[in-house]
Design goal:
The protein has helices at about 1-20, 30-35, 140-145; strands at about 45-50, 65, 70-75, 80-85, 90-95, 105-110, 115-125, 130-135, 150, 155. The protein is of the alpha/beta class and about 160 residues long. A hairpin with a 2-residue loop joins β2 (about 65) and β3. It is globular, with a radius of gyration of 18 Å.
Length: about 160
């Protein structure tokens, strides 16, 4: 009896996951994607990349990227964005669950001119629900992980606001 119950629960969960699908976001052109993967900061600015390589956990959820307190873009699995910002202090954040009841997870950066920063947008499902976070990543590791990611359309050139 227990094994029949388990089997029905597993099948029901599997069907539910298939029906929910993966989150999608508008993508930039392939030419823009290739230019972004040159990984160079423009003169007198800094470039911050946020990328979300595919993971099954949370694949149906778009994860926000918040720069200096303003929600800028959402990432789906296998996508990335970047921000060209002036040198100095900046805060990049994401939040867990939803912006009203979720927890914001910021990462503070003090960026030098010409510097390129890579932030991995990680996520996991735990007993308490869905959790998202940003983690600073080594340049070579990030470039390798970003090969399979596509640039989202909403990448912005951000000045001090």
């Amino acid at each position: 009896m227990v094994s029949r119950f388990r089997r029905s629960v597993v099948v029901t969960c599997g069907v539910a996951m298939l029906l929910t699908g993966c989150a999608t976001v508008p993508l930039a052109s392939k030419a823009d994607d290739q230019r972004a993967k040159e990984f160079k900061a423009p003169d007198s600015k800094c470039r911050v990349y946020c990328y979300r390589p595919y993971k099954f956990a949370g694949s149906a959820i778009k994860l926000p990227v918040i720069l200096n307190g303003k929600r800028r873009v959402e990432l789906a699995p296998n996508t990335f964005t970047y921000f060209d910002v002036p040198p100095g202090p900046h805060t990049v954040a994401t939040f867990s669950r939803d912006p009203v009841f979720g927890t914001v997870f910021p990462i503070k950066l003090n960026i030098q001119p010409g510097e390129v920063i890579f932030l991995w947008h990680g996520s996991k499902v735990s007993g308490g629900g869905f959790a998202a976070r940003l983690i600073r990543e080594d340049e070579e590791v990030a470039k390798r992980k970003m090969r399979g990611c596509r640039l989202v359309q909403a990448t912005l050139d951000v000045g001090r606001e």
